[in-house]
Write a structure and sequence with these properties.
Strand content: 15-25%
Strand order of the largest sheet: 1-2-5-4-3
Largest sheet: 5 strands, mixed
């Protein structure tokens, strides 16, 4: 799938879905005062760790009702807590955009919240923290993507404050140990 704006892409040399719906969704959320950030494979693309984004994963610090109000009449299907997911999601119909309300996962020790943290802006798009998505992918048992992000953090350094916030969560011991071993910026 070709990039929408070759040469002016926020994700050079990456195939991704149309950008306009993502920009619209983020603008609506931010106008409503909802902190949000783009994560998932788009974050991996931003960090030059993948060359394909199949859809846009946006995390938001609000519940689904607030997100629905902020997005106006945009149609979408809601998904509730299921399996390891202790959050809710709105998959916007025909837009390749999913908004995850208060990203969280169940662990053997309790619910681990993955707060939305903005690590950078790319052409106005708030990008999620690599630490957050390294943890999220680990909890999802997506070792390939988690390893890419942990490798990136090992090379570039992690944000101490972000790691400390995660270490206060009920993480599995091996994941907590992995965070403790990261070098800090």
């Amino acid at each position: 799938m070709p990039s929408e704006r070759p040469g002016a892409s926020p994700f050079p040399d990456v195939a991704y879905p149309p950008l306009a719906p993502l920009i619209d969704v983020i603008a609506r959320l931010e106008r409503a005062g909802i902190e949000c950030a783009l994560g998932g494979s788009a974050l991996l693309a931003h960090l030059h760790l993948t060359r394909e984004v199949r859809d846009w994963d946006v995390t938001a610090e609000a519940d689904l009702a607030e997100i629905r109000v902020a997005l106006g009449g945009l149609p979408g299907e809601e998904f509730g807590e299921s399996g390891v997911h202790a959050d809710h999601k709105l998959a916007l119909t025909g837009l390749d955009v999913e908004v995850i309300a208060r990203l969280a996962f169940r662990t053997a020790r309790g619910v681990c919240r993955i707060p939305t943290r903005i690590s950078a802006r790319v052409e106005g798009i708030p990008m999620a923290s690599p630490e957050a998505w390294a943890v999220a992918y680990a909890l999802l048992e997506r070792a390939d993507k988690s390893e890419l992000l942990f490798g990136y953090l090992a090379r570039s350094g992690a944000e101490r404050e972000v790691c400390e916030a995660f270490l206060a969560q009920p993480l599995p011991d091996p994941l907590a140990a992995r965070l403790r071993r990261l070098p800090f910026k």
